[in-house]
């Protein structure tokens, strides 16, 4: 019996060695991954500070662009208001011009009989 116990202990010990080797391998992989992530974060990857600084710059740029857009919209609204006032004035002047032309035509028709009766006298220079 003692030989069987020794064999069982030997088998258990071999299995524990395999488990220990597997755990050591996993620890080594985790250690390599941690070192690689640290190197990436320090040299290549964005840090929290740099990302926050870039966000602050972008936010200030966005706010400046929004202010410019708002002022451009206000100026556009003012220009459209002035344009509509100018268009109303032009329409009113066109109506007055048409009225004046119709009045001129009416007066010419009324004066035409008088002008045909009275001969026109030319004044010589």
Q: What do you see in this structure?
A:
With 125 residues, this protein is mainly α. Helices cover 90% and strands 0% of the residues. The chain contains 2 helices and no strands. The termini are far apart. The model has no long low-confidence stretch (mean pLDDT 80).
From N to C, what is the helix and strand string?
HH
Instruction: Determine the structural class based on helices, strands and strand pairing.
Output: mainly alpha
Number of strands: 0
The portion of residues assigned to helices is over 70%
Name the beta content range. under 5%
Helix run count: 2
Q: What profile does the largest beta sheet have?
A: none
Shape: rod-shaped
Please state the average pLDDT score. 80
- Our measurement of the CA-to-CA distance between the termini, rounded to an integer number of angstroms, reads 160 Å
Question: What radius of gyration results from the CA coordinates?
Answer: 50 Å
Give the tags.
125 residues; mainly alpha; 2 helices
Q: How would you briefly describe this protein structure?
A:
This protein has 125 residues and is mostly helical.
Give the helix/strand layout.
Layout: H1 2-44, H2 48-117
């Amino acid at each position: 019996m003692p030989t069987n116990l020794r064999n069982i202990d030997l088998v258990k010990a071999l299995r524990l060695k395999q488990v220990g080797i597997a755990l050591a391998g996993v620890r080594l992989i985790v250690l390599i991954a941690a070192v690689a992530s640290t190197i990436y974060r320090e040299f290549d990857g964005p840090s929290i500070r740099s990302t926050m600084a870039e966000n602050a710059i972008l936010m200030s740029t966005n706010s400046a662009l929004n202010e410019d857009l708002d002022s451009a919209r206000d100026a556009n609204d003012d220009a459209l208001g002035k344009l509509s006032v100018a268009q109303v004035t032009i329409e009113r002047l066109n109506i007055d011009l048409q009225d004046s032309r119709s009045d001129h035509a009416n007066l010419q028709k009324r004066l035409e009989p008088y002008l045909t009766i009275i001969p026109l006298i030319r004044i010589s220079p």
